[in-house]
Amino acid sequence: MSATADKVAQFQAITGLQDADLCTEILSAHNWNLEQAISSITSTSDSDHTTGTAATDRFEQSGFIAGEGAGPPGLAWKLITLPVSIVSGSLGLVSSAVGLGLWVVGGVLSYSLSMIGLSNSVANGESSSNPSVSVSNAASEAMDFVWQFESEYGGRHPNFVTEGFMDALQRSRREFKLLFVYLHSPDHPDTPGFCEGTLCSEVLSAFVNENFVAWGGSIRATEGFKMSNSLKASRFPFCAVVMAATNQRIALLQQVEGPKSPEEMLTLLQRVLEESASVLVTARLDAEERRNSIRLREEQDAAYQAALEADQARERQRKEDEERLEREAAEAVRKQKEEEEARERAAIEAAEREAKLIKLREQKSLSLGPEPEKGPDVTQNSG
């Protein structure tokens, strides 16, 4: 056995991955350094297992999540905790106060509003051992994947969004659709046939574009590789249907490993849509009800504000009228007082003039002296 084959065998034995081509790609990506390749697998899976074990165990005990090797018993097959490096790649989704939650009750999932947040270790300030993928890097990887895919297989394919996984998950939540995930293994021998004959077929691509938000990633890229670890992809081609869950998790509704015909893929995807239809419709109706409630509140607030402003305007007008009447009354009193004072002054002045005239007459009478007595030599002035 050659050294290369020996390393592949050791890698398979330690990690549990059975796909030799995938193991070869992972080792090649780490320059055939066995320790680094194993660390890239175990470092993310260990941390994911720690943060998600308690919640997942509760679902497994209830019988709603299948154990290893079993088929999906209902809508939710299993809950998967995403590594911090993927979640933190979309700060807009992490910091959003509103997200989609999933609860399993009697085998049926129902949507409700919840926070999609980080794990307790991140909330307490502990850092992850893996470097975070920035939003720009995640989007850049998605754009590179779409460009490479189209250059190799043409333009007819599912409309893979050119953004990171978490942003694609948020988009599916906003549009009330499931997220179709395709993990691309460029060197796998089954990849070309699956892409050309199935994924790029007219009927399948149209079906996916109409009913899903599609996200694709190459396992050679950072985010695609981490998602392959999170989804435990062991055989390629690999497709999955997921939806957002609470606490840094996604719900895996369907996974397809190995080559499939368009008809087989359509059958699987149609079944998932049928099983999730009531959930998505309920979520859409709930969101519409919330929007209507918000709109009604806004209309009520606007009507209250308008009524309040009208009342305030009437109160201002009333005060202005009162002030105007007070000013007019004060002006009338002032004018009346002025008229009375003017009449008083006129009366005083008239009395003074009369007194002066009387005094003047008296003075004139005194200056003429007494009238002479009547006689023949006295002429009496009759005037």
UniProtKB/TrEMBL annotation:
<dbReference type="InterPro" id="IPR006577">
    <property type="entry name" value="UAS"/>
</dbReference>
<dbReference type="InterPro" id="IPR050730">
    <property type="entry name" value="UBX_domain-protein"/>
</dbReference>
<dbReference type="GO" id="GO:0005783">
    <property type="term" value="C:endoplasmic reticulum"/>
</dbReference>
<feature type="region of interest" description="Disordered">
    <location>
        <begin position="310"/>
        <end position="347"/>
    </location>
</feature>
<feature type="compositionally biased region" description="Basic and acidic residues">
    <location>
        <begin position="311"/>
        <end position="347"/>
    </location>
</feature>
<dbReference type="InterPro" id="IPR036249">
    <property type="entry name" value="Thioredoxin-like_sf"/>
</dbReference>
<feature type="region of interest" description="Disordered">
    <location>
        <begin position="360"/>
        <end position="383"/>
    </location>
</feature>
<feature type="domain" description="UAS">
    <location>
        <begin position="144"/>
        <end position="270"/>
    </location>
</feature>
<dbReference type="Pfam" id="PF21021">
    <property type="entry name" value="FAF1"/>
</dbReference>
<dbReference type="GO" id="GO:0043130">
    <property type="term" value="F:ubiquitin binding"/>
</dbReference>
<protein>
    <recommendedName>
        <fullName>UAS domain-containing protein</fullName>
    </recommendedName>
</protein>
<dbReference type="InterPro" id="IPR049483">
    <property type="entry name" value="FAF1_2-like_UAS"/>
</dbReference>
<dbReference type="Pfam" id="PF14555">
    <property type="entry name" value="UBA_4"/>
</dbReference>
<dbReference type="GO" id="GO:0036503">
    <property type="term" value="P:ERAD pathway"/>
</dbReference>
<dbReference type="InterPro" id="IPR009060">
    <property type="entry name" value="UBA-like_sf"/>
</dbReference>
